[in-house]
Write a structure and sequence with these properties.
- This protein is an all-alpha fold.
- The protein folds into 2 domains: 107 residues, Serine Threonine Protein Phosphatase 5, Tetratricopeptide repeat, CATH 1.25.40; 31 residues, no CATH class.
- It is 62% helix and 3% strand.
- The protein has 7 helices and 2 strands.
- Strands 1-2 form a two-stranded antiparallel sheet.
- α2 runs antiparallel to α3.
- The longest helix has 18 residues.
- The chain is elongated, with a radius of gyration of 27 Å.
- It starts with a helix and ends with a strand.
């Protein structure tokens, strides 16, 4: 990877340099070299931002959010994930991954919205009034037995 970066710098291909640095961050993260990965991500993101590469910079921020999440740095992970979502929206990139990472961060931080438990709608009351019991089953003659028709 360092050779790729050196070659791209030698031929003055700024986009390749920036993307290679971001990819180095991914490789270093996978190897567990987290401080080097963070440095590579930040360098790649800064270079991409300076070139106006909004979508690719958003990808870098998404990967950096993954790193922060893995390290338990939830505040930084949330900020990066939100920035990635915003940049992908601005670049009109359909990135479900950025939203998914933001959701993972919010759950890990205990900030996920909770579903409100509301009573069932009134029209559902006849079906739910048995509260866990089976409705009585009867013969058409009215004798109680199991396995026939319900008169609920």
């Amino acid at each position: 990877m360092r050779t790729a970066t050196a070659i791209a710098e030698e031929i003055h291909d700024a986009t390749t340099v920036a993307q290679t640095r971001r990819k180095q961050g991914e490789s270093l993260h996978a190897l567990g070299r987290t401080s080097e990965a963070e440095e590579a991500f930040k360098d790649g993101i800064a270079r991409l931002d300076s070139m106006g590469e909004t979508a690719r910079s958003g990808d870098g921020k998404l990967r950096l959010a993954h790193l922060y999440l893995d390290l338990g740095r939830l505040g930084e992970a949330e900020a990066m994930a939100r920035a990635a979502v915003e940049q992908h929206e601005r670049a009109q990139v359909d990135s479900c991954e950025a939203g998914a990472v933001l959701a993972r961060v919010l759950v890990a931080a205990g900030k996920a919205p909770r579903r409100k438990r509301s009573p069932p709608p009134r029209w559902l009351a006849p079906l739910t009034s048995w509260r866990g019991r089976s409705p009585p089953l009867t013969w058409s003659s009215g004798r109680s037995t199991r396995g026939w028709q319900s008169h609920a």
